[in-house]
């Protein structure tokens, strides 16, 4: 066990009081049961009419995903849901989530918003239960109102909104993967206290076991070894959020939105090393290893909103909030010789604490000529403290440097946006946004490097309809956007190589890792052109072409440095601005009812989307000098069938990403094989107040293969993926 104290996570004690509230004990009476001869019909559409209408009316290209699509497959994580949406990919293997990417670009290129606010503190959308989400907005080009930190686009996740009708829903889920079991419980309630006060609240609890297995074969000049590993662990968490809404005199509204989350995972990894060749004596010197790790993330957030109506017919909206994110990571790695004797023990502990505050003011006014004017001011601050400690056989590795560093940032923004109809054929939205960012990191030498940058981002969106009453339209967007460094990238506290501890040297294939307090933002100029046709039956055909030109590209470089934590020079990997790049792509989408083309067909809704991506990094020789981990293409296809005369709906989807290679510089390449996922579900409407959802994910499970070459050393990793089965009972109490 690690020498550090493991944090407790009393989820059961935390969850039981939340699930035993009187609202469940006193449910609203269900609707009268139908007669035995009545058959409950399930209405499922490729997209709700209101979602398509919101997309059609938006001047900026926006995709709206409502509750029907969110809950269709009974996904346990939001990432598994997002992978089916146009242009969205995950960089993890099937069934294991990963960083969310739009147009193959992640790591800050995709702006992730939660209820319109930035996601901070390392919070992953994979930690958010889909039952907590009301809708998802995918905005392909930045706007003055939503922000310019969106080179690839914006994904805005809207949690359960305010009171619309009385609601008291309970969902019980059970699933299995690789012989391991997991379950989840979620409860949502919307109600009215009096005529002026309504509330919405929801709670989700999950706990699941997990198994992973894989192998890594590493070869270099005169060396070759193979490591097989098995890992068992489990993930657990509680998420709760609420919304209180008051109606004030004069039509004003006041809302408070608290939320809290505790999530974590632990694992025990066993590996066995086999040295196949060792001519140089540099191969690893252990036979087996045991790694025990634990990670816990806690989040508290309180947001408020005051909507004030003006006598002129306009409105001022004040939004503010505070947040706290903490995380703790503990691990202990023990290496053993072939005779079972302990060779080395490595203990690592990392604690981070990030506080954030924001205050926004937005003014909106409908002017003459159908002009919709919006102007706003934004202020956002964040402070991050990080402490890291590494012990080898009980001896601290960074004793002379200290173990704690901090960084802070202050972002200010002002914008103005005008949306209007130039004539019956043309709708325009023009905006201008200014953002300034001041960051202060902390160097391990005691200095506090400070960076200030600002960017003006003019933004223009236009929609042209050849026939104002028709269903065809053309979109054009010309934008400027940027990508700012994350606070963690500015912190220079090193993470030492596990294979080569100090005070000795290391190799470029096992470098230390550290941040860069002098990192600057990336800037991008973009063009989007889209053609859309909205079908009479509620379907859609769309083609979207985009291009981005990026300057100040950030990439991780590995160089030999003279460092204060070792008497000998060591190889260090840290982010840096390396030059320019461009990316372009084509996104196709189609959805609609089979009966639109074949009137006598079953009630089947079809949907498909495909994307092609190309990119190039200047200064890196080709081929494959693409943006990091951007695939060449991605494809999604799915269908839903409402079986006539029965209470059943079935559906399936296919997600496919081809394999690709990326050249990082003259001496480093990475590649991965294709990734595919086949999912299916069955929905049974048992009664008006109850339905059962059965789903299967990753039906065509195949191993994930990744290859990397760095400074003459090549590693081939193979990791298993698994079929996942889930059942969920949904009750309206």
From TrEMBL:
<dbReference type="GO" id="GO:0015344">
    <property type="term" value="F:siderophore uptake transmembrane transporter activity"/>
</dbReference>
<dbReference type="InterPro" id="IPR036942">
    <property type="entry name" value="Beta-barrel_TonB_sf"/>
</dbReference>
<dbReference type="Pfam" id="PF07715">
    <property type="entry name" value="Plug"/>
</dbReference>
<keyword id="KW-1134">Transmembrane beta strand</keyword>
<keyword id="KW-0675">Receptor</keyword>
<feature type="region of interest" description="Disordered">
    <location>
        <begin position="495"/>
        <end position="517"/>
    </location>
</feature>
<dbReference type="InterPro" id="IPR039426">
    <property type="entry name" value="TonB-dep_rcpt-like"/>
</dbReference>
<dbReference type="InterPro" id="IPR000531">
    <property type="entry name" value="Beta-barrel_TonB"/>
</dbReference>
<feature type="signal peptide">
    <location>
        <begin position="1"/>
        <end position="25"/>
    </location>
</feature>
<keyword id="KW-0998">Cell outer membrane</keyword>
<protein>
    <submittedName>
        <fullName>TonB-dependent receptor</fullName>
    </submittedName>
</protein>
<feature type="domain" description="TonB-dependent receptor plug">
    <location>
        <begin position="56"/>
        <end position="154"/>
    </location>
</feature>
<comment type="similarity">
    <text>Belongs to the TonB-dependent receptor family.</text>
</comment>
<keyword id="KW-0732">Signal</keyword>
<dbReference type="InterPro" id="IPR012910">
    <property type="entry name" value="Plug_dom"/>
</dbReference>
<feature type="domain" description="TonB-dependent receptor-like beta-barrel">
    <location>
        <begin position="278"/>
        <end position="699"/>
    </location>
</feature>
<dbReference type="GO" id="GO:0009279">
    <property type="term" value="C:cell outer membrane"/>
</dbReference>
<keyword id="KW-0798">TonB box</keyword>
<dbReference type="GO" id="GO:0044718">
    <property type="term" value="P:siderophore transmembrane transport"/>
</dbReference>
<keyword id="KW-0812">Transmembrane</keyword>
<keyword id="KW-0472">Membrane</keyword>
<dbReference type="Pfam" id="PF00593">
    <property type="entry name" value="TonB_dep_Rec_b-barrel"/>
</dbReference>
<keyword id="KW-0813">Transport</keyword>
<dbReference type="InterPro" id="IPR037066">
    <property type="entry name" value="Plug_dom_sf"/>
</dbReference>
